[in-house]
Amino acid sequence: MSDETKAEIKKLREEIASLKEQLMDLKERRKSRGIYIDIGNNVRHYMEDIMESVAEGIDSELKKCVFIGPRGVKIIREEAPPQRESVEKVDYSKVSEVMSALGQEHRLKILEALMSGGKYVNELQEKLPEITASTLSSHLNVLEEAGLVVQEKVRGRYLITMPGRIAYKMALRIAKFVESGGQE
Amino acid sequence: MWSRYQLGKTVLKTETPITLLQSEKAQVEVDSNALAVQIEFGGQKKGYVFHGRGKFILDTIIETDEGAIGKPIEREINEPFLMLSENKEIEQHIIVADRENLESMGYQSNQEFLVKAEELLHKFAGKGLLGRNCYCCCGSGFIFAFPNKTGKLDVLIANGPRLVFKSTDKVFIANNDKVVLKTPHETVVSNNRKSVVIKKKRF
């Protein structure tokens, strides 16, 4: 092996060592910082930082938190905390607000219409012609305040929320259960 | 194009209300008589620092098969904010400001406003970077930086249906039906209504 080749190999080894050091340094920085953002030279770097912080967040939360799959499957990654025996304090005003929002036929129909996807007010009116425009608007406000629907501020569409879907399904189940005299 | 960025020397104002950004999920408006100064990169106009009344709306909502997640953000703008964009239409609605406009926004002189704008630009670019070269690559997109209550900047990057929003407690990334939302309580990753939700709170 010629001296020149040897020198080149030595140089390459040094470069590899230097790159390894840089990599270690970067890993340390990632460990020590929660969210690292530096809008330094260009937007690309900024985007990379955001993506990195999101990925880190997902990674760390996956390790220690409860994971809910797309079909509601729960996988507990670490030992679940012991169940509390004492009854948690119930916020009856919130319960009342949610139940009151559900306790109206038209509002249940609105929720049913939204189950198939977000809708504009005029689409809801077409689906529910028995409800006047002003009544529909007032019902939507009640549902929104209870957290069962949410309105997109830019486009104006109404969407049923995750709690809204659950509440709607539960309301139907309870009604069915009561109707059957507790048999179902 | 690599060059140093700088602010223009003339204080301008919006002649009419301007919708700076309008997309499916985001909207940024500034009222008439808002002060403005150009941001230049290598002699080319690349954006503005505005100070006036305005509105910022962002629908950080994800529509999934299990129901919608997230809430919209709706904020009144009162503080100076920055916009990087190569949109030329905005120029048609901007004219030179007079002393009355400056005073109505609480400035005694042009210089006072320019200093405030410079501070914002400095904060956006990062400390110590003012003297360095900076690369601006907005293309057809927009970059906004709004100071929030904590004194930090909320940054919105938008290009058509693609957008990224980063605030102190929220990250929202959207590309058509692919969306990622990260809040202090949960992280949601969604692709065409199918979603994975990771909650911090124990059940």
Please tell me about this protein's structure.
The complex is a heterodimer of chains A (184) and B (203). With 184 residues, chain A is mostly helical. Chain A has two domains: 74 residues, no CATH class; 88 residues, Arc Repressor Mutant, subunit A. In chain A, 60% of the residues lie in helices and 7% in strands. Chain A has seven helices and four strands. In chain A, a hairpin with a 6-residue loop joins strand 3 and strand 4. The longest helix of chain A has 30 residues. In chain A, 15% of the residues are buried. About 4% of the residues of chain A have low confidence. Chain B has 203 residues and is mainly beta. Chain B has one domain. Helix content of chain B is 11%, strand content 50%. In chain B, strands 2, 3, 6, 7, 12, 13, 15, 16, 17, 18, 19, 20 and 21 form a 13-stranded antiparallel beta sheet that branches. In chain B, strand 19 and strand 20 form a beta hairpin. Chain B is elongated and about 55 Å long. Chains A and B meet through helix 2, strand 1, strand 3 and helix 7 of A and strand 8, strand 10, strand 14 and strand 21 of B. Strand 1 of chain A pairs antiparallel with strand 21 of chain B, so a sheet runs across the interface.
Large-scale geometry of chain A: elongated
Total count of strands of chain A = 4
Shape, principal axes of CA atoms of chain B? elongated
Tell me the domain tally of chain A. 2
Query: If helices are DSSP runs of H or I spanning 4 or more residues, what is the number of helices of chain A?
Result: 7
Poorly predicted sequence stretches spanning 5 or more consecutive residues of chain A:
34-40
CATH homology superfamily name of the largest domain in chain A: Winged helix-like DNA-binding domain superfamily/Winged helix DNA-binding domain
CATH topology annotation of the largest domain in chain A: Arc Repressor Mutant, subunit A
Radius of gyration of chain A: 28 Å
CATH architecture type of the largest domain in chain A: Orthogonal Bundle
Structural class of the secondary elements of chain A? mainly alpha
Main sheet properties of chain A: 2 strands, antiparallel
Distance between the termini of chain A: 85 Å
The beta-strand count of chain B equals: 21
Helix segment count of chain B?
Answer: 2
Q: Overall mean pLDDT score of chain B?
A: 87
Structural class of chain B: mainly beta
Helix/strand order of chain B: EEEEEEEEEEEEEHHEEEEEEEE
| Cα gyration radius of chain B (Å) | 18 Å
Mean pLDDT of chain A: 81
